[in-house]
Design a protein that fits this description.
By secondary structure, this protein is an alpha/beta fold. The protein is about 50% helix and about 15% strand. Strand 2, helix 1 and strand 3 form a beta-alpha-beta unit.
Length: about 280
């Protein structure tokens, strides 16, 4: 058992990966992302494990990148030197590679999503193979409004052009019931059952031989890769860096440094009446 930012355990033929920053709603840091990739690789090499299950500790699956850390880090970089788009791209590409470890693992991955699954947290969910979601969960990409672009860029591939545009051109979230209806999730269940339902699905899949699971996963995934996923991800990652350095992106970051991330998020989302601003109305 590792009780730092990720907890790993094996339950029969299922390897459980728990994001373990509940006090920060499992917000992503560089250390957590690197540890995730290492964990997926280790479980992928474990002959006793056939399926992986990813979940979040506490009240949320993952609230995206840790913006308190991220905004200060980026400001520090720019105080020390000018923005280097290639350095930015290479850094974010490392994160994409870590998220895509879930996609490329020969072991199928089930994401058990509850509470918030937003921003970078959606990269984790969408890179998984199947999603079981709590009915009241909130899934969305609010950085599409300012300061971001989805780097793994799987939205259109998973839910189609119309629905992907509907979510990314507004940054609006969907609840778990809607996620199931539009094909973003395999099942939506009451929040108290989400881990049990995800585990039951993972255990059912684990009845299949590991080689069959790997072949079936590769068979389906290659259809998306042949549609140009790598190119789309390259563009999404480049756009993410650009979005953080537009006039609006820089202004939002500086507002977050001055007034605090919570206030900046409330001001961004207030006109839409969702995410954190909803609690302040």
């Amino acid at each position: 058992m590792d009780t730092t930012e990720i907890v790993v355990e094996r339950r029969g033929r299922v390897g459980w990966i728990t994001l373990n920053r509940p006090e920060r709603l499992n917000a992503l840091t560089n250390a957590l992302i690197a540890r995730l990739a290492e964990t997926v690789e280790a479980l992928g090499a474990d002959p006793e494990v056939r399926v992986l299950l990813v979940r979040g500790a506490g009240r949320a699956f993952c609230a995206g990148y840790d913006l308190d850390w991220g905004t200060e880090f980026e400001s520090k970089l720019e105080r020390e030197s000018s923005w280097d788009p290639v350095r930015d791209y290479l850094g974010m590409s490392r994160n994409v590679a870590a998220f895509m470890a879930l996609w490329r693992s020969p072991k199928p991955v089930v994401a058990a999503v509850h509470g918030w699954c937003v921003g970078g947290g959606t990269d984790l969910a969408l890179c998984s193979d199947l999603i079981v979601v709590a009915e009241d969960a909130q899934i969305g990409y609010p950085p599409a409004r300012v300061w971001g672009s989805p780097t793994t860029a799987l939205w259109a591939y998973r839910i189609g052009l119309e629905r992907a545009k509907r979510l990314l051109l507004t940054g609006d979230p969907v609840d778990g019931r809607t996620a199931e209806r539009i094909g973003l999730a395999s099942a939506a269940v009451p929040a108290e059952r989400v881990f049990d339902e995800a585990a039951a699905l993972a255990e059912r899949m684990a009845l299949v031989p590991a080689n069959q699971l790997a072949m079936m996963k590769l068979l389906v995934n290659q259809t998306v890769e042949n549609m140009g996923l790598a190119t789309t991800q390259m563009l999404g990652t480049l756009f993410d860096g650009i979005a953080r350095h537009t006039p609006e992106g820089v202004a939002w970051r500086e507002r977050a440094r001055e007034a605090g991330v919570r206030q900046a998020l409330a001001e961004r989302d207030g006109p839409f009446g969702d995410y954190g601003s909803r609690r302040r109305r």
